[in-house]
Amino acid sequence: MSENENPYVAPKGWKPKNPDEDYIITYIDIEMIDEAKDKFVDVAGACAAESSTGTWTKVYDGKGSGVPMADKMKAVAFDLEPETNTFKIAYKVDLFELDNMSGLLAGVVGNIGGMKMLKAFRCLDIRFPRKMVQAFPGPQFGIDGIREQMGIERGPLLLTVPKPKVGRTAQEQADLARILFTAANGEYQGIKDDENLTSLPFNKFEDRCKAVLEVQKEIEEKSGKKKFYLCNVTHSNMETMLDRAGMIKAYGGRWMMMDVVATGFSAVHTMRLKNPGLAIHAHRAMHALMTRESGPGVYDKGVIFDFSMSMVAVAKIMRLLGVDSFHGGAPKAKMEDYGEAKLIRDVLELDITPETSITLGQNWYGMKPVWHVASGGLHPGVLPDVINRLGENIMIQCGGGVLGHPWGIEAGVEAVVQARDIAMGRGNMDEWIKEHPDSALAKAAEYWGFAPKIVY
Ligand code: CAP
Ligand code: MG
User: How many Cα atoms sit within 13 Å of 415 on the Cβ side?
Assistant: First the structure.
């Protein structure tokens, strides 16, 4: 069928009127199986149908069928680009409950990725209208709220995750927190749990929470500097997560951490609404099974190979659901990010996220911004690039990049602080190292260089 014949495809040149008021828009990239290759228009229409009101055939449309309402509410594919197999879908806002992310996703990216006519599918982005943005809670603290809590007006926040990922006892982790918080004149701010550290026989949640927060309190009182502990409450039982959040609060903590993909969107939403006033740190472990795409088109609009949703879309969802910090990848990290870290930072941080050739942009209508967490194989030698690219409203997480320093943990902290100071002062790291050959930073750079270690 041509664009004018398929009821789920808008006429050529059609644009949604008032999209920021009345429509949810998705941006889709597909590859079709050979039998469907010449039917791009119908395939785009089928995606709009299956994700809104339709199915594979015409159905009974007499009295009581709901067809008149379905016709009114149906989504339409538009901006079809057959050369790149990309198109957009416009959904009327009344097709979804305004504050129900799971309901929305079951529609817009629910069934369509599974359709046999598709060989590959990527949801490049989702653009949310005002009413929907305003129906979600968004972050409780955001960037300014955390800066105020920390008493730090400028610059990235620095933190470390213990490595080995799992191995230390609760007390050993608290001892590590003491080192991190006191080395390099107490310039370092945070410690986090790793994504797979929950409550284990040799490191129970409550013991760790209590021990690390005791150290945090003691150091804060002595130094007058605020510190933070991202304590991992991840569990598949929501009640247990809420109990753990309650323990953090009771022991004087200000942050909790959860694995937001492994626990799920409803868990994040519920945690935002029910948690006892803690900031939420969102670790995205497991996201690659949803976001990873190995075709060259992941960088633009070329061929794609897999079935996925971009991290840009996931980051938008997390800002709406209300996390305060989110792992968004980083240039020069050990993890794949397709060079998208800056796009993700824009989604998390800006008041109005601009549109690009592969993203739809977003007006946040005053919703608080989220801290972009740069992490994954970072070490002092790469930090100026990370800060130059992502700006200073980021949390920089170096696990191995601190704990693997050849001179020890204190030197690791010192090297990260030195690298941050150089980047913040717009200095040149090479020159600084030449002038300070005996510094912890010079040693780190000699050991790890200035690039990420990809194979290890
Ligand atoms: C980093 C990390 C994070 C990754 C996840 C790890 O440790 O704690 O989980 O950053 O990737 O276990 O690998 P290192 P992302 O600093 O030792 O690499 O941030 O991209 O979600
Ligand atoms: Mg980790």
Answer: 36
Q: Which of 387, 366, 392 is closest to 153 using CA atoms?
A: 392
Q: Are 119 and 378 in contact (CB under 8 A)?
A: no
Active-site hit among 39, 163, 225, 301: 163
Alpha-carbon gap, residue 437 to 329, rounded angstroms: 31
Q: CA 220 from chain center: how many Å?
A: 29
Question: What end-to-end distance do the CA atoms of the chain give, in Å?
Answer: 52
State in Å: Cα 399 to ligand 1 middle: 7
Residues 284 and 329: their CA atoms lie apart, in Å, by 10
DSSP string, 144-155: HHHHHHHT--SS
Nearest bound ligand to CA 397?
1
Q: Where are the alpha helices (DSSP H) in 165-275?
A: 170-186, 205-223, 238-250, 260-263, 265-274
- Taking the C-alpha atoms of residue 226 and residue 211, their distance in angstroms, rounded to an integer, is 17
pLDDT tens-digit map of 350-399? 999 999 999 999 999 999 999 999 999 999 999 999 999 999 999 999 99
Per-residue pLDDT reduced to its tens digit, 282-294: 999 999 999 999 9
Q: What are the E-state strand segments in 55-107?
A: 76-81, 86-92
* Residues near 21 by beta carbon (within 8 Å), at least 6 away in sequence: 93, 129, 130, 131
Please tell me whether residue 120 adopts helix, strand or coil conformation: strand
Q: Which of 88, 210, 227, 283 is catalytic?
A: 283
d(CA 206, CA 350): 37
Which residues of the chain, if any, have pLDDT below 70?
A: 1-4
269 in catalytic set? no
- How many CB atoms sit inside 10 A of residue 32's CB? 20
Helix and strand totals (H; E) in the chain: 19, 15
What is d(CA 371, CA 395) in angstroms, rounded to the nearest whole number? 7
CA of 452 to the centre of ligand 1 (A): 12
Q: Which helix (H) or strand (E) holds 388?
A: helix 383-390
Cβ–Cβ < 8 Å for 27, 84: no
Between CA 426 and CA 435 the distance in angstroms is: 16
Choose the residue to mutate in 158, 180, 336, 375 for probing ligand 1, maximizing ligand atoms within 8 Å of C-beta: 375
What's the pLDDT at 301? 86
Nearest to 393 by CA among 136, 145, 140: 145
